[in-house]
Design goal:
By secondary structure, the protein is mainly α. It has twelve helices and no strands.
């Protein structure tokens, strides 16, 4: 699964989160201050394209993460680094670190919708590196985590986005693979393209400026032969301004698909 983000749109600015952490550091003691400083230092390395250095700094920040919010932030930072990781081995390491932080965040804040979405995204990020049985188990967990997040906070546009991707991927799974999953692993919950469309539309209703939502809705329309609707969504992608790397990647993908459809 590509183009995955997990913080709600209103929290998407990393620097907004950092400002909040800096404020909290004034009352949170040395550990909070150290965490804030390390995250800021890692961000500098990331902007320089030095993924290894950023990873080392974020690793040092993990023991200082004092809250669910800290751990959710680290999860996002590890996932962001995956965009620039030069090797599959480094991507795997980052995905594993993201999942470890996400699971800690969920344990620290079981009522945090963001923590549940962090876990869902991190499971998906690790898919290329695990066996089929684990993928099936985690696929079911992704659906559950997203539904839990939405139950905790119905404003979670990313929760609906992830559910849309889950329904689309499951509904269009290769027939032979689907049969194998059914026989060996007991199958996956039922899914349809209509389910995917419904969830992507809900994500758009909550966050109409997010390119990823429109891009993936267009993908379902393409798969179901709704060319006119797909083109309309891809044209919307071209008009919007990316808010993060995931949006930027989705916008580039949408531009290529729009050329192919016209």
């Amino acid at each position: 699964m590509r183009h995955l983000v997990y913080l709600p749109s209103r929290f998407v600015s990393r620097w907004l989160v950092l400002l909040q952490l800096i404020y909290l550091a004034g009352t949170g003691g040395a550990a909070a201050a150290t965490f804030t400083n390390l995250v800021a230092q890692g961000d500098v390395f990331e902007k320089q394209g030095n993924v290894a250095a950023a990873l080392a700094v974020y690793t040092n920040a993990e023991p200082c993460a004092a809250s669910c919010a800290d751990l959710c932030l680290l999860t996002r930072l590890y996932c962001d680094l995956m965009h620039d990781a030069a090797t599959p081995a480094l991507q795997k390491t980052l995905a594993e670190r993201a999942l470890a932080c996400a699971l800690r965040a969920e344990k620290a804040g079981p009522k945090s919708a963001t923590a549940h979405l962090c876990v869902a995204v991190s499971y998906a990020k690790n898919f290329p590196y695990v066996d089929t049985g684990t993928k099936v188990t985690w696929s079911k967990a992704i659906k559950t985590e997203c539904e839990t997040a939405i139950a905790l906070d119905p404003r979670q546009d990313v929760g609906y986005y992830l559910l849309g991707r889950w329904y689309f991927g499951t509904a269009n799974m290769n027939f032979l693979i689907k049969g194998l999953v059914e026989i060996v692993y007991g199958g996956l919950p039922k899914a349809s393209n209509a389910d995917a469309i419904r969830n992507f539309k809900q994500a758009i209703a909550l966050a109409p400026a997010r390119i990823i939502h429109h891009c993936e809705l267009a993908r379902v329309y393409e798969a179901t032969g709704e060319k006119r609707l797909a083109i309309a969504e891809l044209e919307t992608c071209a008009r919007l301004k990316p808010v993060d790397r995931d949006d930027a990647d989705a916008q580039q993908d949408a531009a290529k698909r729009l050329v192919a459809l016209r």
